[in-house]
Write a structure and sequence with these properties.
The complex is a heterodimer of chains A (about 110) and B (about 110). By secondary structure, chain A is mainly beta. Chain A is built from no helices and 11 strands. In chain B, strand 7 and strand 8 form a beta hairpin. The chains are: A mainly beta (about 110), B mainly beta (about 110).
Amino acid sequence: NAGVTQTPKFQVLKTGQSMTLQCAQDMNHNSMYWYRQDPGMGLRLIYYSASEGTTDKGEVPNGYNVSRLNKREFSLRLESAAPSQTSVYFCASSPGRIATYEQYFGPGTRLTVT
Amino acid sequence: GENVEQHPSTLSVQEGDSAVIKCTYSDSASNYFPWYKQELGKRPQLIIDIRSNVGEKKDQRIAVTLNKTAKHFSLHITETQPEDSAVYFCAARPNTGKLIFGQGTTLQVKP
């Protein structure tokens, strides 16, 4: 099993450009999450999907949209990138519909917005 | 909403010493408390977790304690080794169902 995979690994955007970060898991997990990691801020939840067909906002959803395409895939879209969105983005998945199970993280996407 | 404070932000110990990282949370309804380890350039990985009906849990050199009255929980690493050097994150799960992470502790184990 590949676990949780993310593409791309690195990306540089100019302010105002858009892009989609892709995430897929092959563990048949119900829940999927998008986090951003900034120095000294820990991991902050952007959006999550408790099950296929549902999505909900996390702590820092502004400037982002998500799509739970099917049970395996959960994408994160930046419609108009801003320098404040420079960060490392992690996708994660967990088996349960609630966050009392281990979350498995992807390798991360390092995004720089200039 | 839930708020998780983690201390210290950095910790340096000699190999073989113990390390303790403490987290406090604000929502008394929180019922699940995992700890994640993130090595440099890698993804976070779960190392131990505890639920609110348990006061302590051990796994070899790692232990977590939970004090629900005081709303704090701690990670204890004994006989530290250089490979324990990493960033450690605590988290708490309130009734909203979302994990709230602490700010992280960078642990350095000096050989």
